UniProtKB/TrEMBL annotation, chain A:
Keyword Membrane among UniProt keywords: yes
Membrane-crossing residue ranges in chain numbering: 32-54, 60-82, 94-114, 120-138
Entry superkingdom: Bacteria
Keywords: Membrane, Transmembrane, Transmembrane helix
Annotated source species: Conyzicola nivalis
Protein name in the entry: Membrane protein YqjE
Automatic annotation (TrEMBL), chain B:
InterPro entries (UniProt xref): WH-like_DNA-bd_sf, WH_DNA-bd_dom, WH_DNA-bd_sf
Signal peptide: none
Protein name: DNA-binding MarR family transcriptional regulator
Pfam family, one: HTH_34
Keywords for the protein's UniProt record, in alphabetical order: DNA-binding
Keyword DNA-binding: yes
Organism: Conyzicola nivalis
PANTHER family: BSL7504 PROTEIN (PTHR37318:SF1)
Entry coiled-coil feature ranges: none
Domain Winged helix DNA-binding span(s) in chain numbering: 20-98
Top-level taxon in the UniProt lineage: Bacteria
GO MF assignments: DNA binding
Length: 143, 104
């Protein structure tokens, strides 16, 4: 005897709609701090490293401290805003986003240290930070 | 081949036909990883009901349960595994077939 419950086309459609709604609402409710953080971090560090690479003296000091201040403010904002919904911060996907930002940031800092004043390498590495952050944010927003 | 063998409903994942388990996996589909409380709020069930269904999904290898501590507070995270995602995609594809919208 067939014991598999029958499911109609209407019921299947309702289940698909429910799955889509749940999936979107669970994602939207928890992801905005992560997307905001990676975007803001990308923009701040991209502009900061570019400014540091091309300036000297007081202007360099200002760019350096402003970048650090913005980075720490963003980290504090992020830690506060993910309280109670930090599970994603331990995930492989988030680790990948942060790793890609870090690699490009390290490259930009290398230019600041070893190729100070050279516009093209500074523009490329700082641009790469922006690209990595935008791609990560877009990927997460569209997940 | 008999008529019953041909109907796509036979290909539906038995584990995912339970409404709570279906909702848990749906909530994890886009997010990938969520905290226990986040899933509970999304699915709108009690902690004990969620624990019971998560255990079934974990036993089947569909969901990985992570434990950590934030200070002295225990934190539980739920992650949809590769097997879980594959089963979920197949389940949804079968539902689409039944609904008559295979390309959705």
């Amino acid at each position: 005897m067939d014991t598999t419950p029958t499911i109609t086309a209407t019921e299947a459609r309702l289940l698909l709609d429910r799955a889509d709604r749940l999936s979107r609402s669970a994602h939207n409710a928890t992801r905005w701090p992560y997307i905001t953080f990676i975007l803001a971090l990308g923009v701040a560090t991209s502009m900061g490293t570019f400014a540091m690479a091309l300036t000297t003296g007081d202007a360099f000091g200002l760019a350096y401290f402003a970048t650090l201040a913005v980075m720490f403010s963003l980290i504090i904002f992020f830690m506060l805003s993910i309280q109670g919904r930090s599970a994603f911060s331990h995930s492989r996907r988030w680790t990948g986003y942060i790793a890609s930002w870090f690699v490009t940031y390290a490259a930009a800092i290398s230019v600041v240290i070893w190729a100070h004043g050279e516009v093209v390498p500074a523009a490329i590495t700082s641009g790469l930070i922006l690209v990595a952050a935008f791609v990560s944010a877009a990927r997460e927003a569209r997940a | 081949m008999t008529a019953t063998e041909q109907h796509p409903r036979h290909r539906l994942d038995e584990l995912l036909q339970n409404p709570v388990r279906f909702s848990i996996v749906a909530a994890l589909d886009r997010a990938g990883t969520l905290g226990f409380k986040e899933v509970r709020d999304a699915v709108e069930v009690t902690d004990s009901a969620l624990s019971k269904q998560v255990s079934s999904l974990e036993s089947a290898g569909y969901v990985a349960v992570g434990k950590s501590f934030a200070g002295k507070m225990p934190r539980t995270s739920l992650t949809l595994t590769r097997e879980g995602r594959a089963a979920w995609k197949a389940h949804l594809a079968t539902l689409r077939e039944i609904a008559g919208e295979p390309g959705r």
